Amino acid sequence: MKSRLYLPLSLKIYAISLLMLSFVLVVAIGNYMRMTTVKEEVRDIAQLISPINKHITQIYIHTLEQEILFERLLRLNQTIPTPQGALATEQQALLVRQEQIMKQIHETQSLAEQAAYATRILQDTIALARVTPDLRMLAEDQWQMQTLYQEIINAVQSRDNLRSQLMTEQLQRHETLFNQRIARLQHNLFGITQAGIQKIQRQDDNLLTFNISISVAALLVGIIVAAYASRRVTAPLKALIRGSDELLRENYRHQIPVISNDEIGELTTSFNHLMQQVETKETLRASMQEYLDPRVVKLLTEHPEEVKGARHHASVLFSDIAQFSKLSETLSPESLVAVINEYYNLAGQAILQIDGVVDKYIGDAIVAFWSPPFTESQSCARLACRGALKQVEQLHHLRLALPNLVGIRKGLPDIDIRIGVASGEIIVGNIGTKTNRSFTIIGAAVDIAEQLEQLNKQLGTHILVTENTRQQAGTEFLFRLAAQLDYGSTDETTNKQFVYQLLGYRDAFSEAEINQFEDIDHILKQLFLSPNQQLFSALETYLEHHPGDAIAQFQRRSISC
């Protein structure tokens, strides 16, 4: 007599199939709810931006009314005899309109600041943050216009026609600038609203269509498979059950004879392959748990020979938070940990997005590399430079998040980073003891990258690279000569090489800026190779025209010493 309720296998298979289909439907419903949330966010943005746009339109309308009132007042002052009653009325109306305009500008500023904090879309937050300076300029322009109104009226009353004409021309320029600023604000706000709504609505429609299609297809396929599988109750299933038991006992050498030439036979074959793969990969399971980057895990799983180490030409990036000691003294332990974690998160994302591998985190520093087999050798330097620029770009997001991380909005510490990039031969491999290993890199390039990171502090730069990195990176970037560094000595000869500052992507600089950097590069290179008085004079002449060049100033001080 059976102690439990017996259920036919066909019913179990059918129930499992229906359960899987219900999961698909739940996923579809969840996606639909997420799509609805996206729509609500779009409506929120529209509700935040629309009042700002409405206020700006009202400011523009009231400004036009102000101009009309001023014209009336001007004509009344030019009338002989001057109607004093009408003049006083128009003056009072003009003052009321001016106060109303200034009040609306301040209210619009408050709305823009509230909207910037309320929106959950980063692009809109940045765009709204740019509205506030323009509104401040509107207030400044309005104040200038009001001042000119009064000066023109005074000039007309005193019959000073020349002064009145000059003030009128100046007023016209301010009115034109004011109107252009209003138009630009309206255009930007309209663009933000329209682009956001159209983009997310397209995503909304596509997501809904996709979910419905997948759900219908999964439902049809699931019903067919469930009906077919419910009839496939045969002896090989018992063998699979015994094989599953062996798998639970970690007997990975167990194999099941294939006795049927159908789907169950294929399942049996797949099960045997699975047992073989599990046996092979189980030996690497402990190693896989040590690595965060999935490419490293895949490498060690599919190419275990790389575990022993290999020599590759690579590029190494070493980045560090500037003035970290001062920062640690300023912030509480909790805030400091939050800032470092966010910095690691953003910087790590920047490196991974450019196909880099994060080697380790050391205090507030990050070591990353670009190397085969993860990237091609000829691309390592170029990708490393992109990764460095991307990391500096992510610094902006860290500064935006800083108030929330430290819990204050005033007196925030200045966050900056320094980066060194070096290229050369390194050894990539699994290094450590049997119980504690790390897939890491060693080589001179690592030490040089750290030296360059520290040299940034002396030169006042952000990104320094070696000469071979600059040569291998190609023409995509703009570099300038920064220093000459001693990388060590061999056979009693000094191994000095040039160090370059990575300024950014070449397309972002004008031809005049590029020529300026080429000029100073030529002067510094000659000074490093064979200094003479003529080159010193050339450097002094350059600094007279470019006194803000920190690198040139540093080299002049170094040469003077």
Sequence stretches where pLDDT stays below 50 over 5 or more residues: 286-291, 489-493
Order of helices and strands: HHHHHHHHEHHEEHEEHEHEEHHH
**CA radius of gyration:** 35 Å
Number of domains: 4
Shape call: flat
Largest sheet: 8 strands, mixed
Number of helices: 16
Number of strands: 8
Whole-Å distance between the termini? 101 Å
**Percentage of β-strand residues:** 5-15%
Structural class: alpha+beta
| Helix content, binned percent | 55-70%
Can you give the mean pLDDT? Answer: 77
Short structural description:
With 561 residues, the protein is of the alpha+beta class. The protein has helices at residues 9-78, 84-118, 122-157, 161-229, 236-248, 263-282, 285-288, 294-302, 324-330, 333-353, 380-406, 444-459, 467-473, 511-529, 533-545, 550-560, and strands at 310-321, 357-362, 365-370, 417-432, 437-442, 463-466, 477-490, 493-505.
Q: What key attributes describe this structure?
A:
4 domains; 67% helix; flat; Alpha-Beta Plaits; alpha+beta
Layout of strands and helices, then pairs:
Blueprint: H1 9-78, H2 84-118, H3 122-157, H4 161-229, H5 236-248, H6 263-282, H7 285-288, H8 294-302, E1 310-321, H9 324-330, H10 333-353, E2 357-362, E3 365-370, H11 380-406, E4 417-432, E5 437-442, H12 444-459, E6 463-466, H13 467-473, E7 477-490, E8 493-505, H14 511-529, H15 533-545, H16 550-560
Parallel strand pairs: 4-6
Antiparallel strand pairs: 1-3, 1-4, 2-3, 4-5, 6-8, 7-8
Polypeptide structure, described:
This protein is α+β, with helices and mostly antiparallel strands and 561 residues long. The protein has four domains: 13-214; 236-282; 310-509, Alpha-Beta Plaits, CATH 3.30.70.1230; 511-561. 67% of the residues lie in helices and 14% in strands. Strands 1, 2, 3, 4, 5, 6, 7 and 8 form an eight-stranded mixed beta sheet that branches. β2 and β3 (365-370) form a beta hairpin. α1 (9-78) runs parallel beside α3 (122-157) and α11 packs across α13. The longest helix has 70 residues, at 9-78. 24% of the residues are buried.
